[in-house]
Amino acid sequence: MIATTDVKLNLGLRVLGRRSDGYHDLETLFVPCNAFGDTLEIKPAVRFGISIDGPCYGGWNPSSDLTARAWQLMHEEYGIGPVEIKLTKTAPVGAGLGGGSADGACALKMLSDLFWLGLSEKRLAALALELGSDCPFFIYDRPMFATGRGEILEPSGIDLSDYRIRVELPYGVQVSTREAYASLKLHEHASQPGEGKGLKELLQHPIEEWKGLVINDFEEGVFESYPQIAAMKEKMYAEGAVYASMSGSGSAVFGIFAKR
Fold this sequence. Notes:
Layout: E1 2-4, E2 7-18, E3 24-33, E4 39-44, E5 49-53, H1 66-78, E6 83-88, H2 99-114, H3 121-129, H4 135-140, E7 144-147, E8 152-155, E9 163-168, H5 177-182, H6 199-202, H7 219-225, H8 227-238, E10 243-246, E11 253-258
Parallel strand pairs: 5-6
Antiparallel strand pairs: 1-4, 2-3, 3-7, 4-6, 7-8, 9-11, 10-11
């Protein structure tokens, strides 16, 4: 069984505050994007094994990969047998695109199909949450407004069919989630553009009005450390984007352009 994953983009990302459990409450609109994707092959085997290759494989221990953790979780929950996993990494790492989370979610879906478990999206999303906060989104892989720590998902009817999306990455730059949170500058959103409105309300404005209104709270701190990411965003606007933003905690930048 072979599948190709999507990545995600964040249309706005507001960090509302730190929680007692150490996580942060946030609000964002996740949308799937096929600009990059990994290839995942899973087949039954005599014993469990995993191999990872591809241009974006950074040499981490394959046994710690979210796809391996997905199999371990399904093995513990449903007693599934051993498999051989082959993951080809072409989605950038440390880019705020959720490539690793997409792999873990995809593995859960594939294992459910491979072993005829027939798990619902809701059940798979609950399992995915054990792998990471943004993994449940990739179970649905359609636009979702997210709250909580990113796991509370509500379908969104946003329509981007009149636009094309371009995603770029600054050469040689990766931004870890830990680093992005360390540089996060929390503000009262009432003092920012939007006059205290929630992100969901701001997203109701025409896309052409999003600039300066629909913001990513990670940008301020990340841009200070990596001005080349800020420059890439401005380049998107200079080239005609109606809206541009860093995705997630960076380093990827995307621009939304009207179709000609």
